[in-house]
Amino acid sequence: MRDFVIVSVLVLAASVVATLDPATTNTNGKFPTKPSCSPVKTSKAIQAAECSHNTRTSKQTFAVFTTDHKYDKVNGAPYGTCEAYNCDPGTAMTASADAWTFFWSGAGECDGEGVGCIKNPVDGMCGCENSDGTFVPGGSNCE
Fold this sequence. Notes:
Layout: H1 2-15, E1 19-20, E2 25-32, E3 41-47, H2 48-53, E4 54-55, E5 62-67, E6 79-85, E7 93-103, E8 110-111, E9 118-119, E10 126-129, E11 135-137
Antiparallel strand pairs: 1-4, 2-7, 2-8, 3-6, 5-6, 5-7, 9-10, 10-11
């Protein structure tokens, strides 16, 4: 229960500074080996779906999500760390079972955001989050 409360609070806090803008492509199981910059913003204990659906910077080009397995049993898993970048990812990718890279370009191996809906950590119901962090159960047109 304690992990659930911590995740819920962190999800809401992390979402407040995000803007709904789903990734256009993604690559699961890999991350850029040598991006041309460091992450601009890092969000911890968030859903992979939040990382793929919401930009964290105004010029975000890609984000790397790394799974944190201590949250594997929480509704909405996987949870982990999302690092947002404003630069070119480069072309070399490193394999990692816990990595998922989301692109706001055509650089990914698969089309779309890849993860599915953002889920309510309380009951697992799909929905979306407004830019102010408000979760809308069943929603798909958040602002």
